[in-house]
Amino acid sequence: MKKFLRSGNHYIWLTAGTLTVSLLMISGLIVLIMINGFDIFWPRQIVRFTLRDGTAVMGEVAERELVPHQKGAYRTKLKVGNRDVYGMDFRWIDNADIVSQTYPVHALTVERREWGNLYGFLYGLRRNEGVQPLKAEGLASLLAENHALYKKIRYVEKKEIGNINYRMEKFRLALEGLKSQHPSEKIQNKIDAVMARMEHLENSYREKEATLVALYEKAREKELVVLLADGREEIVPVFQIIRFYAPNEMGIFSKTGFYFAKFWEFVWDDPREANTEGGVFPAIFGTVMMVLIMSIAVVPLGVLTAVYLKEYAGDSFVSRLVRISVSNLAGVPSIVFGVFGLGFFIYFLGGGIDKLFFSDALPTPTYGTGGILWAALTLSLLTVPVVVVATEEGLSSVPRAIREGSYALGATKFETLWKVVIPQATPGILTGTILAMARAAGEVAPLMITGVVKLAPSLPIDGHFPYIHLERKFMHLGFHIYDVGFQSPNVEAAIPMVYTTTLVLLFTVLILNLTAIVVRNKLKKWYSRGAI
Q1: What angle in degrees, to the nearest 10, is found between the helix axes of 491-531 and 9-38?
Q2: What are phi and psi of 76, to 5 degrees?
Q3: For residue range 321-352, what is the model confidence (pLDDT) as tens digits?
Q4: DSSP character for 101?
Q5: Which secondary-structure segment (H or E) carries 121?
Q6: Which partner from 27, 136, 378, 493 sits 20 to 30 angstroms from 69, CA to CA?
Q7: What is the signed CA dihedral for 55, 60, 64, 69, rounded to 10 degrees?
Q8: Average pLDDT rounded to a whole number, residues 221-232
Q9: What is the CA radius of gyration of the chain?
Q10: Contacts of 9 (CB under 8 A, 6+ apart)
Q11: In whole angstroms, what is the distance from residue 434 CA to residue 1 CA?
Q12: What is the rounded distance in angstroms from the CA atom of residue 269 to the CA atom of residue 500?
């Protein structure tokens, strides 16, 4: 035993055991998220319970568990939907109160744009003249017609009216700027020209508004009558229906196709219902764009700092002070960086930019408020110690013989550094970038006060010049998880969305890191061949 302890092998086994436990815990967490995240898109069967008091309820079984403090008694959590009717999405039912349970073949799940799912039976189509019988095939054609109508309404609202509003705002600011100048005939002519264009835009706006009113009136013409489990009739405008399906009739292939269609919608669609339904595309877009801007900002800053410390500063008092500062930065709480970003980037830099270049828009700030640029720069400060340390390690790994060979050929120190040392250290620099990207993608606290919002009206990239709008607020997957999980008014309905969004965040970070790893490995091979 003494021989074993003196050999030091127990430290190796202890390290290996700790690493194994850590990997198992991480794997278990990922498996838990995957099981709960992938499960929500699968169409579950609709069950109809007849209760002891004579009432009937219908919905999807969410879970079953033992009743607390009652031995052998179970209860069922049923997703009853119909939130506009019952006021809640879920209902606990004691199994002892269930007299019978059936799985009606023609029971429908109706996904709506508002009020969540509706569970019931198709009864008919209501128009001005009354209720007409309607079958599933007829409803499918009606939905296709209304989806086209919905796309047209969205196009008029977001594209046509949105463009008019954007141009009106530009002309308004131009008019304010002209009015602030010294009056002259030339200025007055310009004011008249701008006002004429604004009048033309106002006329176009009124035309589009009338078109929109007509489209909405057309959308309200057809209403679906659905029979609920307790016999009540529920009226649903066809325009509000996203899709309908009968899960009890669906086979395995139909359910598989439905699953992938829902997953595709989740990735590419906009959120709805206070972010508890729909997709997360704006959050994915905002997260990726913010990380890329952060990488562009942090890599030059971190590399230049590391090169100064490693190649030029030596072991002076200043270099030791800078190293201590960089090390301390790594331990500063992230919310402190957020407060610094709010004060320095938003109030100081952004406020200064507004005074210099956007004074016509004041008191409404353009850059003097939270935005994706300031959030990315704040995170670049948060992650710069990682890049500095990794770059220093990369510079240290370059063999001394390579430097001396470069000097022997007559290269200066800067030429050796620029053309020999930094290219050889590039894999190390990219390693630091990978670590910085992973941390930045998961940070939420600094973003909450530097630009992230619950629901962004538009993406930071669109068709309006200059096409990239760094001053805009954005959505972020990490904040989306926090908002849906802890700020949602319907927490129970939002729990599956939390798991799925977490899964998307993990995959987004994984894809960003894999891209950087592939680039790093290619550069490593390329420089290895160059050295030979």
Answers
A1: 130
A2: -120, 135
A3: 888 888 888 788 889 999 999 999 999 999 99
A4: E
A5: strand 117-127
A6: 493
A7: -40
A8: 87
A9: 31
A10: none
A11: 43
A12: 14
Q: At what angle do helices 281-307 and 372-396 cross, to 10 degrees?
A: 40
Q: What is the pLDDT of residue 516?
A: 79
- What sign does the dihedral 317-320-326-327 (CA atoms) show? negative
Rounded to an integer, what distance in angstroms lies between the CA atom of residue 22 and that of residue 13? 14
Instruction: Report how far residue 352's alpha carbon sits from residue 449's, in angstroms, rounded to the nearest whole number.
Output: 19
Q: What is the pLDDT of residue 49?
A: 92
Distances (CA, A) of 295 to 316, 384, 434: 30, 10, 9
Q: Which amino acid is at 308?
A: Y
DSSP 8-state class, residue 516: H
Q: How far is CA 316 from CA 312, 319, 330, 400, in A?
A: 10, 5, 22, 22
Burial of 323 by CB count in 10 Å (0-12 exposed, 13-18 middle, 19+ buried)? middle
Do residues 36 and 28 touch, judged by C-beta distance below 8 A? no
Q: Which range, 73-87, 372-386, 398-412, 459-473, has the best average confidence (pLDDT)? A: 372-386
**Torsion on CA atoms 447, 451, 457, 463, rounded to nearest 10:** -110
Query: Look-up: residue for tokens 């009206």?
Result: 457
What is the pLDDT, as a whole number, of residue 530?
57
Residue 532 has pLDDT above 50, yes or no: no
pLDDT (tens digit per residue) in 271-299: 887 777 888 899 999 999 999 999 999 98
b/e 47-75 (16+ beta carbons within 10 angstroms → b): bbbbeeeeeebbbbbbeeeeeeeeeeeeb
- What single string gives the DSSP state of each residue in 426-462? HHHHHHHHHHHHHHHHH--TTGGGTTB-SS-SS-SB-
Question: Longest Cα pair distance anywhere in the chain, in angstroms?
Answer: 101
Query: How does residue 209 score in pLDDT terms, banded at 50, 70 and 90?
Result: very high
Query: pLDDT tens digits, residue range 161-197?
Result: 988 998 898 888 888 888 888 888 888 888 889 899 9
Calpha distance 336→445 (Å, rounded): 9
Tokens matching residue 235? 């009226």
Strand partners for 57: 49
pLDDT digits (tens, 9 = 90+) for 7-52: 777 788 889 999 999 999 988 988 888 888 777 888 889 999 999 9
Q: What are phi and psi of 83, to 5 degrees?
A: -60, -30
482-457-87 Cα angle (round to 5): 55
Long-range contacts made by residues 464-467, C-beta under 8 angstroms, separation at least 24? 464/163, 464/166
> Residue 398 — left, alpha, or beta (φ > 0 → left; ψ -120 to 50 → alpha)?
beta
Report which secondary-structure segment, H or E, holds 124. Answer: strand 117-127
pLDDT value at residue 139: 82
Q: How confident is the model at residue 207 (pLDDT cuts 50, 70, 90)?
A: very high
Angle formed at CA 242 by CA 241 and CA 245, multiple of 5 degrees: 90
Name the strand (E) or helix (H) holding 277. strand 277-278
The pTM of the full predicted model, rounded to 2 decimals, is: 0.86
Cα–Cα distance measured from residue 127 to residue 224, given in angstroms and rounded to the nearest whole number = 9
Query: Which tokens is 98 given?
Result: 């269930």
